[in-house]
Amino acid sequence: MAGGKESPRQKMIGMMYLVLTALLALNVSKDLLNAFVVINDGLITTNETIYHKSQSVMDQFRAQLALDAKKTRPYYERALEVEQMSEEMNQYVEQLKGHLIQQTVGYDETTADSMYALRNVDKKDNYDVPTKILIGSEAAFPKQGEFTALELKSELERFRDDLGALFDPIREKDIIEKIESDIVLGKVPNADGKLENWEVGNFYHLPLAACITNLTKIQSDIRAAENDALKSLYDNVTLNDFKFDTIAAKVVPQSSYVLLGEEYKADVFLAAFSRTEQPEMFIGDFGPDESLVNIQDSLEVHDGLGRLNVKTTKEGFQTYHGVIKMKRNDGSTKDFHFESEYLVAKPTTTVAPTKMNVLYKGIKNPIKVSAPGVPNENLSVSITGGNSLRAASNGEYEVQMSRSSPSQVFVVVKAEMEDGTTKELGRSEFRVKRLPKPYAKIGEIESSGNLSAGRLIASRGIRALYSDDFEFNLNCKVTSFRMNTFYKGGAVDATENSNEFNAEMKTIISALPSGTTVTFDKIFAIGDDGVKHEMSPIMIKII
Predict the structure, then answer these.
(1) What predicted TM-score, i.e. pTM, was given to this entire model?
(2) Other CB atoms within 10 Å distance of the CB of residue 519
(3) Which of 263, 291, 318, 329 is the most buried (most CB within 10 A)?
Protein backbone atom coordinates (compact mmCIF):
# COMPACT_ATOMS: atom_id res chain seq x y z
CA MET A 1 0.00 0.00 0.00
CA ALA A 2 1.14 3.56 -0.63
CA GLY A 3 0.50 4.89 2.86
CA GLY A 4 -0.76 8.39 3.63
CA LYS A 5 -3.84 9.80 1.90
CA GLU A 6 -5.20 7.35 -0.69
CA SER A 7 -7.82 7.77 -3.39
CA PRO A 8 -10.99 5.59 -3.31
CA ARG A 9 -9.55 3.64 -6.25
CA GLN A 10 -6.34 2.86 -4.35
CA LYS A 11 -8.30 1.82 -1.25
CA MET A 12 -10.45 -0.53 -3.35
CA ILE A 13 -7.40 -2.15 -4.94
CA GLY A 14 -5.71 -2.47 -1.52
CA MET A 15 -8.75 -4.26 -0.06
CA MET A 16 -8.84 -6.55 -3.11
CA TYR A 17 -5.23 -7.63 -2.53
CA LEU A 18 -5.78 -8.30 1.17
CA VAL A 19 -8.76 -10.53 0.40
CA LEU A 20 -7.01 -12.42 -2.39
CA THR A 21 -3.80 -12.84 -0.39
CA ALA A 22 -5.86 -14.32 2.45
CA LEU A 23 -7.49 -16.72 0.00
CA LEU A 24 -4.10 -17.82 -1.26
CA ALA A 25 -2.92 -18.44 2.29
CA LEU A 26 -5.72 -20.98 2.58
CA ASN A 27 -4.32 -22.99 -0.36
CA VAL A 28 -7.47 -22.40 -2.37
CA SER A 29 -8.78 -24.72 -5.09
CA LYS A 30 -8.74 -24.01 -8.80
CA ASP A 31 -12.41 -23.04 -8.66
CA LEU A 32 -11.69 -20.34 -6.15
CA LEU A 33 -8.81 -19.09 -8.28
CA ASN A 34 -11.48 -18.17 -10.81
CA ALA A 35 -12.18 -15.21 -8.51
CA PHE A 36 -9.04 -13.72 -10.04
CA VAL A 37 -10.64 -14.10 -13.46
CA VAL A 38 -13.56 -11.91 -12.38
CA ILE A 39 -11.25 -9.28 -10.89
CA ASN A 40 -8.92 -9.38 -13.89
CA ASP A 41 -11.83 -8.94 -16.29
CA GLY A 42 -13.08 -6.01 -14.19
CA LEU A 43 -9.65 -4.37 -14.26
CA ILE A 44 -9.46 -4.80 -18.04
CA THR A 45 -12.83 -3.06 -18.38
CA THR A 46 -11.61 -0.27 -16.08
CA ASN A 47 -8.44 0.11 -18.15
CA GLU A 48 -10.49 0.44 -21.33
CA THR A 49 -12.68 3.08 -19.68
CA ILE A 50 -9.66 5.11 -18.53
CA TYR A 51 -8.08 4.74 -21.99
CA HIS A 52 -11.22 6.11 -23.67
CA LYS A 53 -11.25 9.03 -21.21
CA SER A 54 -7.66 9.80 -22.20
CA GLN A 55 -8.59 9.62 -25.87
CA SER A 56 -11.43 12.05 -25.18
CA VAL A 57 -8.91 14.48 -23.67
CA MET A 58 -6.74 14.13 -26.78
CA ASP A 59 -9.79 14.85 -28.97
CA GLN A 60 -10.39 18.02 -26.96
CA PHE A 61 -6.72 18.91 -27.40
CA ARG A 62 -7.05 18.60 -31.17
CA ALA A 63 -10.16 20.78 -31.15
CA GLN A 64 -8.36 23.46 -29.12
CA LEU A 65 -5.36 23.18 -31.45
CA ALA A 66 -7.60 24.07 -34.38
CA LEU A 67 -8.96 27.08 -32.48
CA ASP A 68 -5.70 28.43 -31.02
CA ALA A 69 -2.59 26.58 -32.20
CA LYS A 70 -0.10 29.00 -30.65
CA LYS A 71 -1.54 28.63 -27.14
CA THR A 72 -2.31 24.90 -27.37
CA ARG A 73 0.65 23.41 -29.24
CA PRO A 74 3.24 23.40 -26.39
CA TYR A 75 0.83 21.46 -24.16
CA TYR A 76 -0.37 19.24 -27.02
CA GLU A 77 3.17 18.19 -27.88
CA ARG A 78 3.78 17.22 -24.24
CA ALA A 79 0.48 15.31 -24.31
CA LEU A 80 1.69 13.33 -27.32
CA GLU A 81 4.81 12.38 -25.35
CA VAL A 82 2.62 11.22 -22.43
CA GLU A 83 0.48 9.15 -24.80
CA GLN A 84 3.53 7.51 -26.43
CA MET A 85 5.28 6.69 -23.13
CA SER A 86 2.09 5.22 -21.67
CA GLU A 87 1.44 3.06 -24.73
CA GLU A 88 5.01 1.73 -24.75
CA MET A 89 4.83 0.89 -21.03
CA ASN A 90 1.43 -0.78 -21.42
CA GLN A 91 2.69 -2.89 -24.34
CA TYR A 92 5.71 -3.98 -22.30
CA VAL A 93 3.44 -5.27 -19.50
CA GLU A 94 1.21 -6.95 -22.08
CA GLN A 95 4.22 -8.80 -23.50
CA LEU A 96 5.23 -9.88 -20.00
CA LYS A 97 1.74 -11.32 -19.41
CA GLY A 98 1.94 -13.26 -22.67
CA HIS A 99 5.41 -14.55 -21.79
CA LEU A 100 4.22 -15.86 -18.40
CA ILE A 101 1.23 -17.65 -19.91
CA GLN A 102 3.25 -19.14 -22.74
CA GLN A 103 6.00 -20.39 -20.44
CA THR A 104 3.51 -21.80 -17.93
CA VAL A 105 0.99 -23.55 -20.13
CA GLY A 106 2.11 -23.05 -23.72
CA TYR A 107 -0.51 -22.16 -26.31
CA ASP A 108 -1.55 -23.27 -29.75
CA GLU A 109 -2.90 -21.14 -32.59
CA THR A 110 -6.42 -21.09 -31.11
CA THR A 111 -5.46 -19.97 -27.63
CA ALA A 112 -2.83 -17.56 -28.96
CA ASP A 113 -5.58 -15.32 -30.33
CA SER A 114 -7.15 -15.05 -26.88
CA MET A 115 -4.13 -15.77 -24.69
CA TYR A 116 -4.76 -12.71 -22.49
CA ALA A 117 -8.29 -13.91 -21.64
CA LEU A 118 -7.42 -15.40 -18.25
CA ARG A 119 -10.54 -17.53 -18.12
CA ASN A 120 -9.27 -19.54 -21.14
CA VAL A 121 -5.91 -20.34 -19.52
CA ASP A 122 -5.18 -23.67 -17.83
CA LYS A 123 -2.85 -24.07 -14.84
CA LYS A 124 -4.06 -20.90 -13.16
CA ASP A 125 -2.83 -22.38 -9.87
CA ASN A 126 0.75 -22.94 -11.07
CA TYR A 127 3.17 -21.24 -8.63
CA ASP A 128 6.49 -22.58 -9.81
CA VAL A 129 6.90 -21.22 -13.35
CA PRO A 130 5.75 -17.61 -12.67
CA THR A 131 7.94 -17.47 -9.55
CA LYS A 132 10.94 -18.91 -11.41
CA ILE A 133 10.55 -16.36 -14.26
CA LEU A 134 9.79 -13.26 -12.21
CA ILE A 135 11.70 -13.78 -8.95
CA GLY A 136 13.90 -16.85 -9.13
CA SER A 137 14.54 -19.44 -6.44
CA GLU A 138 15.18 -17.07 -3.51
CA ALA A 139 12.89 -14.23 -2.50
CA ALA A 140 15.73 -12.52 -0.65
CA PHE A 141 17.74 -12.27 -3.88
CA PRO A 142 15.36 -11.70 -6.82
CA LYS A 143 16.98 -12.42 -10.14
CA GLN A 144 17.69 -9.83 -12.78
CA GLY A 145 17.29 -9.92 -16.53
CA GLU A 146 14.59 -9.86 -19.19
CA PHE A 147 10.99 -10.49 -18.14
CA THR A 148 11.75 -10.34 -14.41
CA ALA A 149 9.99 -8.44 -11.64
CA LEU A 150 13.10 -6.32 -11.11
CA GLU A 151 13.12 -5.32 -14.79
CA LEU A 152 9.41 -4.49 -14.57
CA LYS A 153 10.00 -2.32 -11.49
CA SER A 154 12.87 -0.52 -13.22
CA GLU A 155 10.73 0.17 -16.31
CA LEU A 156 7.90 1.50 -14.12
CA GLU A 157 10.33 3.77 -12.25
CA ARG A 158 11.65 5.10 -15.56
CA PHE A 159 8.10 5.64 -16.87
CA ARG A 160 7.07 7.47 -13.70
CA ASP A 161 10.19 9.68 -13.67
CA ASP A 162 9.99 10.49 -17.40
CA LEU A 163 6.33 11.38 -17.02
CA GLY A 164 7.10 13.65 -14.08
CA ALA A 165 9.97 15.29 -15.98
CA LEU A 166 7.43 16.77 -18.43
CA PHE A 167 6.14 19.05 -15.66
CA ASP A 168 7.72 21.96 -13.81
CA PRO A 169 8.82 20.74 -10.35
CA ILE A 170 7.65 23.98 -8.70
CA ARG A 171 4.60 25.23 -10.59
CA GLU A 172 3.27 21.74 -11.33
CA LYS A 173 4.30 19.99 -8.13
CA ASP A 174 0.76 18.68 -7.50
CA ILE A 175 0.53 16.66 -10.72
CA ILE A 176 4.03 15.21 -10.18
CA GLU A 177 2.92 14.00 -6.74
CA LYS A 178 -0.29 12.61 -8.28
CA ILE A 179 1.70 10.61 -10.82
CA GLU A 180 3.91 9.27 -8.02
CA SER A 181 0.78 8.18 -6.13
CA ASP A 182 -0.48 6.39 -9.27
CA ILE A 183 2.75 4.41 -9.72
CA VAL A 184 3.61 3.21 -6.19
CA LEU A 185 6.62 0.89 -6.00
CA GLY A 186 7.16 0.76 -2.24
CA LYS A 187 6.86 -2.23 0.06
CA VAL A 188 3.57 -4.15 0.24
CA PRO A 189 2.07 -6.28 3.06
CA ASN A 190 2.01 -10.07 2.73
CA ALA A 191 -0.63 -12.46 4.12
CA ASP A 192 0.86 -12.07 7.61
CA GLY A 193 0.75 -8.29 7.42
CA LYS A 194 4.54 -7.97 7.15
CA LEU A 195 6.02 -5.61 4.59
CA GLU A 196 7.93 -7.09 1.65
CA ASN A 197 9.75 -5.58 -1.29
CA TRP A 198 7.42 -4.62 -4.12
CA GLU A 199 8.60 -7.34 -6.51
CA VAL A 200 8.39 -10.09 -3.86
CA GLY A 201 5.03 -8.99 -2.46
CA ASN A 202 3.46 -8.84 -5.90
CA PHE A 203 4.90 -11.95 -7.58
CA TYR A 204 6.73 -14.38 -5.28
CA HIS A 205 5.06 -17.78 -4.81
CA LEU A 206 1.80 -16.55 -6.32
CA PRO A 207 -0.19 -18.60 -8.83
CA LEU A 208 -0.35 -17.61 -12.47
CA ALA A 209 -3.87 -16.19 -12.04
CA ALA A 210 -2.68 -13.82 -9.31
CA CYS A 211 0.39 -12.73 -11.28
CA ILE A 212 -1.66 -11.93 -14.41
CA THR A 213 -4.21 -10.01 -12.30
CA ASN A 214 -1.41 -8.05 -10.63
CA LEU A 215 0.01 -7.13 -14.04
CA THR A 216 -3.43 -6.00 -15.25
CA LYS A 217 -3.67 -3.85 -12.12
CA ILE A 218 -0.28 -2.32 -13.00
CA GLN A 219 -1.66 -1.50 -16.46
CA SER A 220 -4.52 0.24 -14.67
CA ASP A 221 -1.97 2.33 -12.74
CA ILE A 222 -0.24 3.23 -16.02
CA ARG A 223 -3.50 4.32 -17.63
CA ALA A 224 -4.43 6.32 -14.51
CA ALA A 225 -1.08 8.16 -14.56
CA GLU A 226 -1.52 8.85 -18.29
CA ASN A 227 -5.02 10.22 -17.76
CA ASP A 228 -3.97 12.42 -14.82
CA ALA A 229 -1.06 13.85 -16.83
CA LEU A 230 -3.22 14.54 -19.90
CA LYS A 231 -5.96 16.22 -17.88
CA SER A 232 -3.40 18.42 -16.12
CA LEU A 233 -1.91 19.51 -19.45
CA TYR A 234 -5.36 20.22 -20.89
CA ASP A 235 -6.35 22.25 -17.82
CA ASN A 236 -3.49 24.62 -18.68
CA VAL A 237 -5.13 25.26 -22.04
CA THR A 238 -8.66 25.83 -20.68
CA LEU A 239 -7.87 28.16 -17.79
CA ASN A 240 -10.46 30.58 -19.20
CA ASP A 241 -13.33 28.30 -18.10
CA PHE A 242 -13.74 30.26 -14.88
CA LYS A 243 -10.46 28.85 -13.62
CA PHE A 244 -8.81 32.20 -13.03
CA ASP A 245 -7.55 33.97 -9.95
CA THR A 246 -8.24 37.57 -10.94
CA ILE A 247 -11.28 39.34 -12.33
CA ALA A 248 -10.73 42.89 -13.58
CA ALA A 249 -13.10 45.40 -15.08
CA LYS A 250 -12.00 46.65 -18.51
CA VAL A 251 -12.96 49.74 -20.49
CA VAL A 252 -12.09 49.77 -24.19
CA PRO A 253 -13.17 52.93 -26.00
CA GLN A 254 -13.65 52.73 -29.73
CA SER A 255 -11.84 56.04 -29.71
CA SER A 256 -10.58 58.35 -26.96
CA TYR A 257 -10.57 61.24 -29.40
CA VAL A 258 -14.05 62.47 -30.31
CA LEU A 259 -15.26 65.39 -32.43
CA LEU A 260 -17.55 67.94 -30.83
CA GLY A 261 -21.15 66.91 -31.52
CA GLU A 262 -20.26 63.24 -32.13
CA GLU A 263 -20.84 60.30 -29.75
CA TYR A 264 -18.21 58.81 -27.47
CA LYS A 265 -18.44 55.00 -27.60
CA ALA A 266 -16.73 52.45 -25.38
CA ASP A 267 -16.99 48.73 -24.54
CA VAL A 268 -17.17 47.94 -20.80
CA PHE A 269 -16.69 44.28 -19.89
CA LEU A 270 -15.23 41.68 -17.54
CA ALA A 271 -12.15 39.82 -18.69
CA ALA A 272 -13.99 36.54 -17.91
CA PHE A 273 -17.69 36.03 -18.35
CA SER A 274 -20.49 33.46 -18.57
CA ARG A 275 -22.87 33.24 -21.48
CA THR A 276 -25.65 32.07 -19.11
CA GLU A 277 -25.08 34.60 -16.31
CA GLN A 278 -24.73 38.17 -17.54
CA PRO A 279 -23.32 40.84 -15.19
CA GLU A 280 -25.11 44.13 -14.50
CA MET A 281 -23.37 47.41 -15.41
CA PHE A 282 -24.20 50.94 -14.20
CA ILE A 283 -22.74 54.43 -14.77
CA GLY A 284 -22.80 56.94 -11.89
CA ASP A 285 -20.71 58.46 -9.10
CA PHE A 286 -18.92 56.77 -6.19
CA GLY A 287 -19.96 57.67 -2.63
CA PRO A 288 -17.63 57.86 0.42
CA ASP A 289 -18.00 54.11 1.01
CA GLU A 290 -17.20 53.41 -2.69
CA SER A 291 -20.81 52.51 -3.38
CA LEU A 292 -22.38 53.75 -6.60
CA VAL A 293 -24.67 56.76 -6.12
CA ASN A 294 -26.51 59.04 -8.53
CA ILE A 295 -26.91 56.30 -11.13
CA GLN A 296 -26.99 57.96 -14.55
CA ASP A 297 -27.28 55.00 -16.91
CA SER A 298 -27.48 51.21 -17.07
CA LEU A 299 -25.79 49.34 -19.90
CA GLU A 300 -27.25 46.65 -22.14
CA VAL A 301 -25.04 43.56 -21.74
CA HIS A 302 -24.39 40.73 -24.21
CA ASP A 303 -21.77 37.99 -23.60
CA GLY A 304 -20.30 39.96 -20.72
CA LEU A 305 -19.91 43.07 -22.89
CA GLY A 306 -21.69 46.34 -22.12
CA ARG A 307 -22.05 49.06 -24.75
CA LEU A 308 -21.72 52.69 -23.57
CA ASN A 309 -22.90 55.56 -25.81
CA VAL A 310 -22.47 59.17 -24.64
CA LYS A 311 -23.46 62.21 -26.68
CA THR A 312 -20.64 64.77 -26.55
CA THR A 313 -21.55 68.43 -26.00
CA LYS A 314 -18.27 70.19 -25.10
CA GLU A 315 -14.54 69.98 -25.70
CA GLY A 316 -11.91 68.76 -23.21
CA PHE A 317 -11.32 65.71 -21.01
CA GLN A 318 -14.46 63.95 -19.81
CA THR A 319 -14.46 61.32 -17.07
CA TYR A 320 -17.01 58.75 -15.98
CA HIS A 321 -17.34 56.05 -13.31
CA GLY A 322 -19.27 52.83 -13.04
CA VAL A 323 -19.65 49.41 -11.48
CA ILE A 324 -20.02 45.85 -12.78
CA LYS A 325 -22.05 43.53 -10.55
CA MET A 326 -21.11 39.86 -10.94
CA LYS A 327 -23.18 37.11 -9.32
CA ARG A 328 -21.37 34.43 -7.32
CA ASN A 329 -22.36 30.76 -7.27
CA ASP A 330 -24.07 31.22 -3.90
CA GLY A 331 -26.31 33.96 -5.30
CA SER A 332 -24.45 36.91 -3.77
CA THR A 333 -22.84 39.59 -5.94
CA LYS A 334 -19.40 41.20 -6.09
CA ASP A 335 -18.85 44.74 -7.36
CA PHE A 336 -16.01 45.67 -9.71
CA HIS A 337 -15.46 49.42 -10.03
CA PHE A 338 -14.11 51.09 -13.14
CA GLU A 339 -13.43 54.58 -14.39
CA SER A 340 -12.16 56.06 -17.63
CA GLU A 341 -11.81 59.33 -19.50
CA TYR A 342 -11.92 60.57 -23.06
CA LEU A 343 -10.93 63.72 -24.89
CA VAL A 344 -13.39 65.70 -26.98
CA ALA A 345 -11.57 67.85 -29.56
CA LYS A 346 -11.94 69.52 -32.91
CA PRO A 347 -10.83 67.63 -36.06
CA THR A 348 -7.14 66.85 -36.57
CA THR A 349 -5.03 64.20 -38.30
CA THR A 350 -2.85 61.56 -36.64
CA VAL A 351 -0.66 58.84 -38.05
CA ALA A 352 0.90 56.42 -35.59
CA PRO A 353 2.45 52.94 -35.59
CA THR A 354 0.24 50.42 -33.79
CA LYS A 355 3.23 48.61 -32.23
CA MET A 356 6.22 50.93 -31.65
CA ASN A 357 7.52 54.39 -32.59
CA VAL A 358 9.68 53.08 -35.44
CA LEU A 359 9.22 51.09 -38.65
CA TYR A 360 11.32 47.95 -39.16
CA LYS A 361 13.01 46.85 -42.36
CA GLY A 362 12.03 43.62 -44.08
CA ILE A 363 8.63 43.12 -42.38
CA LYS A 364 5.05 44.40 -42.47
CA ASN A 365 4.60 47.23 -39.97
CA PRO A 366 1.02 48.00 -38.89
CA ILE A 367 0.10 51.67 -38.54
CA LYS A 368 -3.18 53.39 -37.84
CA VAL A 369 -4.34 56.55 -39.61
CA SER A 370 -7.24 58.63 -38.35
CA ALA A 371 -8.66 61.97 -39.53
CA PRO A 372 -11.66 62.79 -37.32
CA GLY A 373 -14.55 64.08 -39.36
CA VAL A 374 -13.32 62.41 -42.56
CA PRO A 375 -14.57 58.90 -43.48
CA ASN A 376 -11.79 56.32 -43.93
CA GLU A 377 -12.87 55.67 -47.52
CA ASN A 378 -12.11 59.31 -48.38
CA LEU A 379 -8.52 59.11 -47.13
CA SER A 380 -5.49 58.56 -49.36
CA VAL A 381 -2.35 57.34 -47.52
CA SER A 382 1.13 56.93 -49.04
CA ILE A 383 4.73 56.46 -47.86
CA THR A 384 8.07 57.75 -49.17
CA GLY A 385 11.37 55.93 -49.62
CA GLY A 386 10.35 53.28 -52.15
CA ASN A 387 8.29 51.30 -49.63
CA SER A 388 4.77 49.93 -50.11
CA LEU A 389 1.64 50.59 -48.05
CA ARG A 390 -1.57 48.55 -48.11
CA ALA A 391 -4.93 49.40 -46.52
CA ALA A 392 -6.28 46.77 -44.10
CA SER A 393 -9.51 47.90 -42.39
CA ASN A 394 -10.94 50.62 -40.17
CA GLY A 395 -8.07 53.02 -40.71
CA GLU A 396 -5.37 50.39 -40.25
CA TYR A 397 -2.56 49.93 -42.79
CA GLU A 398 0.40 47.63 -43.36
CA VAL A 399 3.71 49.19 -44.37
CA GLN A 400 6.11 46.76 -46.08
CA MET A 401 9.59 48.14 -45.46
CA SER A 402 12.33 47.11 -47.89
CA ARG A 403 15.82 46.21 -46.70
CA SER A 404 17.22 49.18 -48.63
CA SER A 405 14.82 51.67 -47.09
CA PRO A 406 16.37 54.96 -45.93
CA SER A 407 16.68 55.67 -42.22
CA GLN A 408 13.83 58.17 -42.35
CA VAL A 409 10.46 58.06 -44.17
CA PHE A 410 7.22 60.06 -44.23
CA VAL A 411 3.62 58.86 -44.20
CA VAL A 412 1.48 61.35 -46.18
CA VAL A 413 -2.28 61.61 -45.58
CA LYS A 414 -4.61 63.28 -48.09
CA ALA A 415 -8.40 63.57 -48.12
CA GLU A 416 -10.99 63.93 -50.83
CA MET A 417 -13.14 66.91 -49.93
CA GLU A 418 -16.88 67.25 -50.54
CA ASP A 419 -16.23 69.49 -53.57
CA GLY A 420 -14.07 66.76 -55.18
CA THR A 421 -10.73 68.41 -54.50
CA THR A 422 -7.84 66.65 -52.71
CA LYS A 423 -6.26 68.21 -49.64
CA GLU A 424 -3.13 67.12 -47.78
CA LEU A 425 -4.07 66.79 -44.11
CA GLY A 426 -0.56 66.18 -42.85
CA ARG A 427 2.56 64.00 -42.93
CA SER A 428 4.31 62.10 -40.12
CA GLU A 429 7.98 61.28 -39.87
CA PHE A 430 9.19 57.79 -38.85
CA ARG A 431 12.61 56.36 -38.08
CA VAL A 432 13.53 53.13 -39.88
CA LYS A 433 15.57 50.43 -38.12
CA ARG A 434 16.60 46.81 -38.52
CA LEU A 435 14.89 44.20 -36.36
CA PRO A 436 16.66 43.60 -33.03
CA LYS A 437 18.96 40.63 -32.68
CA PRO A 438 17.22 37.57 -31.16
CA TYR A 439 18.59 35.46 -28.33
CA ALA A 440 18.74 31.68 -27.90
CA LYS A 441 16.98 29.70 -25.18
CA ILE A 442 16.86 26.03 -24.13
CA GLY A 443 13.88 25.37 -21.91
CA GLU A 444 14.05 28.32 -19.49
CA ILE A 445 17.84 28.71 -19.75
CA GLU A 446 19.23 31.66 -21.72
CA SER A 447 23.01 31.60 -21.20
CA SER A 448 23.90 28.99 -18.57
CA GLY A 449 22.21 26.76 -16.04
CA ASN A 450 21.71 23.27 -14.67
CA LEU A 451 19.44 20.54 -16.06
CA SER A 452 19.10 16.78 -15.77
CA ALA A 453 19.78 14.82 -18.94
CA GLY A 454 16.10 13.88 -19.13
CA ARG A 455 14.90 17.48 -18.79
CA LEU A 456 17.46 18.63 -21.37
CA ILE A 457 16.24 16.05 -23.89
CA ALA A 458 12.62 16.89 -23.06
CA SER A 459 13.29 20.53 -24.01
CA ARG A 460 13.58 19.17 -27.60
CA GLY A 461 15.97 21.81 -28.93
CA ILE A 462 16.82 25.50 -29.12
CA ARG A 463 14.39 28.39 -29.55
CA ALA A 464 15.16 31.82 -30.95
CA LEU A 465 13.26 34.66 -29.28
CA TYR A 466 13.11 38.41 -29.39
CA SER A 467 13.32 40.42 -26.19
CA ASP A 468 10.13 40.54 -24.10
CA ASP A 469 9.90 44.31 -24.56
CA PHE A 470 9.76 43.92 -28.36
CA GLU A 471 6.09 44.37 -29.23
CA PHE A 472 5.96 42.55 -32.56
CA ASN A 473 4.81 38.93 -32.67
CA LEU A 474 7.35 37.65 -35.19
CA ASN A 475 8.82 34.30 -36.01
CA CYS A 476 12.52 33.63 -35.61
CA LYS A 477 13.72 30.06 -36.05
CA VAL A 478 17.03 28.40 -35.31
CA THR A 479 18.44 26.95 -38.52
CA SER A 480 21.59 25.27 -37.21
CA PHE A 481 23.71 24.80 -34.09
CA ARG A 482 26.59 22.79 -32.67
CA MET A 483 26.81 20.79 -29.43
CA ASN A 484 30.17 20.35 -27.64
CA THR A 485 30.83 18.12 -24.63
CA PHE A 486 33.18 15.53 -23.17
CA TYR A 487 31.88 12.04 -23.97
CA LYS A 488 33.46 8.60 -23.46
CA GLY A 489 36.90 9.94 -22.70
CA GLY A 490 37.11 12.53 -25.44
CA ALA A 491 35.69 15.78 -26.76
CA VAL A 492 32.85 15.45 -29.25
CA ASP A 493 31.13 17.88 -31.59
CA ALA A 494 27.68 17.25 -33.02
CA THR A 495 25.94 19.58 -35.47
CA GLU A 496 22.32 19.89 -36.56
CA ASN A 497 20.72 21.93 -39.36
CA SER A 498 17.44 22.53 -37.57
CA ASN A 499 16.30 23.75 -34.17
CA GLU A 500 15.84 20.27 -32.59
CA PHE A 501 18.27 17.82 -31.03
CA ASN A 502 19.00 14.95 -33.40
CA ALA A 503 19.23 11.29 -32.45
CA GLU A 504 23.02 11.44 -32.00
CA MET A 505 22.74 14.37 -29.62
CA LYS A 506 20.02 12.69 -27.58
CA THR A 507 22.13 9.53 -27.30
CA ILE A 508 25.14 11.50 -26.08
CA ILE A 509 23.12 13.58 -23.61
CA SER A 510 21.36 10.56 -22.12
CA ALA A 511 24.75 8.93 -21.39
CA LEU A 512 26.41 11.97 -19.79
CA PRO A 513 27.20 11.66 -16.07
CA SER A 514 26.30 14.37 -13.58
CA GLY A 515 28.69 17.29 -13.56
CA THR A 516 29.35 17.20 -17.33
CA THR A 517 29.08 20.52 -19.14
CA VAL A 518 27.36 20.68 -22.53
CA THR A 519 27.96 23.76 -24.70
CA PHE A 520 25.69 24.80 -27.57
CA ASP A 521 27.32 27.34 -29.89
CA LYS A 522 27.36 28.45 -33.52
CA ILE A 523 23.63 28.98 -33.09
CA PHE A 524 22.19 30.61 -36.21
CA ALA A 525 18.62 31.83 -36.69
CA ILE A 526 16.64 33.62 -39.40
CA GLY A 527 13.74 35.97 -38.68
CA ASP A 528 10.80 37.17 -40.78
CA ASP A 529 13.01 39.86 -42.28
CA GLY A 530 15.28 37.18 -43.79
CA VAL A 531 18.36 38.35 -41.85
CA LYS A 532 20.60 35.61 -40.45
CA HIS A 533 21.94 36.05 -36.90
CA GLU A 534 24.52 34.17 -34.83
CA MET A 535 23.37 34.08 -31.21
CA SER A 536 25.31 33.74 -27.98
CA PRO A 537 26.21 30.20 -26.81
CA ILE A 538 24.41 28.36 -24.01
CA MET A 539 26.23 26.25 -21.38
CA ILE A 540 24.30 23.60 -19.44
CA LYS A 541 25.65 21.49 -16.58
CA ILE A 542 24.12 18.02 -16.26
CA ILE A 543 22.80 17.32 -12.75
Answers:
(1) 0.46
(2) 14
(3) 318
